[in-house]
Specification:
By secondary structure, this protein is α+β, with helices and mostly antiparallel strands. It folds into two domains: 114 residues, no CATH class; 137 residues, no CATH class.
Length: 264
């Protein structure tokens, strides 16, 4: 059987994953804090027909060998943590991270999730939560008799609220930021959340604006970092690569047909 059949099949499978990844990027073009993914490819093993450096005579060596490649495989899907465009909302509980880092979220199972999505809300107990109702960590509770316009979140994460009838704002908590040595190693779990993994390293939690951590911008959100034009170009390239690999299979099939139809 011709190697080209199986080699081209690996190419089609790889481009299918590439298209799947691009489709997910495009689907999340308006998702707050979304980070696009990229597929990295590697070539497969090579079949060595003739080894380079082997002796061709008592005094000469073969300068180059014969190695036939056996295709391609996806090696990784990498999250690209380039910043997304800012969007002004003027909502007091919308917070954008200007720089590196993640908000910390308390998940229902007790684990900590990490997100760039700063579109926070208040629950029935006036605690700051995500759109899914998960608590922001450290937990912050806004006192009663505080109007939204009387809340402020400083660049260092300090949250202040002005209670009705008072003249001096009260500190009600502070948002801390987590950074990772390798954020691309975080595990995406959906819902705009990531989880720590062995590849990401442990979180380095601290005050916003210190040790390279992002500062906070109130009344603004970070949008997706997906560039539609770039994704469309990548989509066309992947489609053409898939088409070329299918042509390789057709050509191999035609060659096998010719061989089968040979007559003496």
């Amino acid at each position: 059987m011709m190697r080209a059949l199986y080699t081209a099949a690996t190419g089609m499978g790889a481009q299918q994953m590439n298209v799947d990844t691009i489709a997910n990027n495009l689907a999340n073009v308006n998702t707050t804090g979304f980070k696009k993914s990229r597929v990295d490819f590697q070539d497969l093993l090579y079949q060595q027909i003739r080894m380079a450096g082997a002796s061709s005579s008592d005094s000469t060596q073969i300068p180059t060998g014969i190695n036939i490649g056996l295709g391609v495989r996806p090696a990784a899907t990498q999250k690209m943590f380039t910043p997304g465009l800012p969007k002004l909302t003027n909502q007091p509980l919308d917070v954008r991270l200007d720089g590196d880092g993640f908000f910390q979220i308390e998940l229902p199972d007790g684990d900590t999730g990490y997100t760039r999505d700063g579109s926070f809300k208040l629950d029935e107990e006036r605690r700051v939560v995500t759109s899914d109702g998960y608590l922001l960590t450290p937990n912050i509770t806004i006192p009663e008799n505080v109007a939204f316009e009387n809340m402020s979140i400083a660049q260092d994460g300090t949250v202040q609220a002005l209670v009705a009838g008072e003249t001096t704002p009260t500190d009600v908590g502070q948002v801390t930021i987590a950074t990772f040595v390798n954020p691309a190693g975080l595990t995406a779990t959906g819902g705009n959340l990531f989880k720590e993994s062995a590849a990401s390293g442990e979180p380095n939690v601290g005050t916003a604006g210190t040790e390279g951590r992002a500062t906070l911008v109130q009344g603004s959100l970070e949008m997706s970092n997906v560039a539609v034009i770039d994704e469309m170009v990548d989509l066309i390239t992947a489609q053409r690569a898939y088409d070329v690999n299918s042509k390789s299979i057709q050509t191999s099939d035609e060659m096998l047909g010719l061989a089968n139809n040979l007559k003496r």
